[in-house]
């Protein structure tokens, strides 16, 4: 199984990946104006990005290093599986935390549902501006945002 950045046959100059458990609340076209690799910090470990929403350059041709090859050689640190996407992508794009702060997306592009309860004062202040909600963890019945 490959990773979303591995498609060598793409005809796009830039892509925005969104996890299946995200919900777009308003237009996010401006993400296509962001540099690659732009992503929001992970709420649990801010030196890593959360792979739920990120802007990336599609891989053209057959480069020597891809996320899939990285996974085969190094595995993933996140422990979810042999090659969990978050660990692999943070390993592959390992300069995200320090290279360029402009590549850090505001939390409104990847507002984790668990952060709503954990950081209620911040949610009350900024939540109305949220553009994408990311429902992390197991789904619960009757969950609301």
Question: Overview of this structure, please?
Answer:
This protein has 145 residues and is an alpha+beta fold. The chain has one domain (15-134): Spore Coat Polysaccharide Biosynthesis Protein SpsA, Chain A (Alpha-Beta Complex). The protein contains 5 helices and 6 strands, in the order E-E-E-E-H-H-H-E-H-H-E. It has helices spanning 67-74, 85-92, 96-99, 113-118, 120-126, and strands at 15-18, 22-24, 38-41, 49-56, 111-112, 132-134. The strands form 2 sheets. It has a 3-stranded antiparallel sheet with strand order 1-4-3, with helices on one face. Strand 3 (38-41) and strand 4 (49-56) form a beta hairpin. Helix 1 packs across helix 2 (85-92). The longest helix is centred in the middle third of the chain and has 8 residues, at 67-74. The chain is globular, with a radius of gyration of 15 Å. The mean pLDDT is 80.
